[in-house]
Amino acid sequence: MIAIVDYGMGNIASVKTAFEKLGYEVVVTDDIDTLSAATHIILPGVGSFHAAVEEINTRHLKEDLQKLAKEKPFLGICLGMQLLFDKGFENGIANGLGLIPGEVNVIKTEYILPHIGWNELNIEHNHTVFDMFQNKHVYFVHSFQALTEKKYVVATANYGTEVPAIVRNGHIFGMQFHPEKSGEIGVKLLQAFLQQTSTTEGVES
């Protein structure tokens, strides 16, 4: 069973549908017992980093999500990916989940923000499981980007600067784009995450 975290700030219906297309049982919940029973945890998100942190804290989910991420494959999508990092600067400073070292700040680019639309992926050479997605286009909607060490970056997209598009720390993954809105390629990327985390080891130190 795949559990999608419900904290009031996600495009949950489309994410749920995408996983159901792959044949998985999917539940949307903020109940810790239900989350603990899942094989994979998905953290979606649309909105601001600061507001998302407030919602997570209001529902007393932060410590539970941090614990579950050490035990189970975990995927953050769009804002959900940004929440994986230590700190964000959107609408004020807020502490994230601290699952991947780094911060989230506005994209420093001459291009118009937000970054909306289709952009191609550039896969880093040390992540061969994702090689099939080189130059494939996925759908982005964001103005903020992760700032992290290169070793955590699986793929980037160019928007006047290199923006991390897929990040990873052990069995914790993040996708800055919306795989659920990226057609067949997006579904295949979700499938790659599920297949990769079926055998991967735990979080790196």
UniProtKB/TrEMBL annotation:
Substrates-to-products reaction catalysed: L-glutamine + H2O = L-glutamate + NH4(+); 5-[(5-phospho-1-deoxy-D-ribulos-1-ylimino)methylamino]-1-(5-phospho-beta-D-ribosyl)imidazole-4-carboxamide + L-glutamine = D-erythro-1-(imidazol-4-yl)glycerol 3-phosphate + 5-amino-1-(5-phospho-beta-D-ribosyl)imidazole-4-carboxamide + L-glutamate + H(+)
EC number(s) reported in the record: 4.3.2.10, 3.5.1.2
Active site: C78 (nucleophile), H178, E180
InterPro entries in alphabetical order: Class_I_gatase-like (IPR029062), GATASE (IPR017926), Imidazole-glycPsynth_HisH (IPR010139)
Pathway where it operates: Amino-acid biosynthesis; L-histidine biosynthesis; L-histidine from 5-phospho-alpha-D-ribose 1-diphosphate: step 5/9
Compartments, as annotated in UniProt: Cytoplasm
Principal subcellular localisation of the protein: cytoplasm
Keywords from the named record: Amino-acid biosynthesis, Cytoplasm, Glutamine amidotransferase, Histidine biosynthesis, Hydrolase, Lyase
CDD domains per the UniProt record, alphabetical: GATase1_IGP_Synthase
UniProt GO molecular function: lyase activity
Domain of life: Bacteria
Glutamine amidotransferase domain boundaries: 4-193
NCBIfam families: IMP_synth_hisH
Job of this protein: IGPS catalyzes the conversion of PRFAR and glutamine to IGP, AICAR and glutamate. The HisH subunit catalyzes the hydrolysis of glutamine to glutamate and ammonia as part of the synthesis of IGP and AICAR. The resulting ammonia molecule is channeled to the active site of HisF.
Assembly and interaction partners: Heterodimer of HisH and HisF.
Protein name, as recorded: Imidazole glycerol phosphate synthase subunit HisH
Organism encoding this protein: Gracilibacillus marinus
